[in-house]
Amino acid sequence: MKPENPLTIGIDIDGTVTEPSSIVPLMNESFGKQLRYEDCIDYNLATVYGISDEVFADWLDKHGERLYDVAPVHGAADRVLRQWYKRHKLVYISAREARHLEVTIKWFSRYQIPYHHMDLIGSHDKLAAARKWQVDLFLEDRLENALQLAEALSIPVFLFDTPYNQGTLPRLVQRVTSWEQVDALVDQLALEKANA
Q: Where is the active site (predicted)?
């Protein structure tokens, strides 16, 4: 049975569905650092680790597959997404490259996280993909993405609170601290849509 007023939910993967801190141990291991997740106050980890963007891009190129395979689930993401799948359309829009589709699908399967569409765009600019899928809202951890999506599409964006995305937020971007909180907010949006 199809829900009467489903939402099309755009969802980032890394730092949103996966635990935001999962990259830190791998970066520490590779670069001989002992940084904590709380030390990562800039989304650009090259800046945090004192390396060039090229060195970081090369590191991600070599270690991306391992990172995407070992990342733990972020809080109750798996449980909430399984519930949403029955009522809403789940579209994952990620900066991961298309070549990582297989490891991504295996990870989703391992944790029994459902999806309707998986769009690995290989870029942080998610605007075209969000437009293509006509998302009603977006879940994100990168501040710049959240601001761009909310402004350009006039949709609500739920920004998962992290050390690297602090700052003033406009009306349509709401900071959230758990998947349970997002679940309640999505229920509220679905109800508003039904009553509109």
A: 12, 14
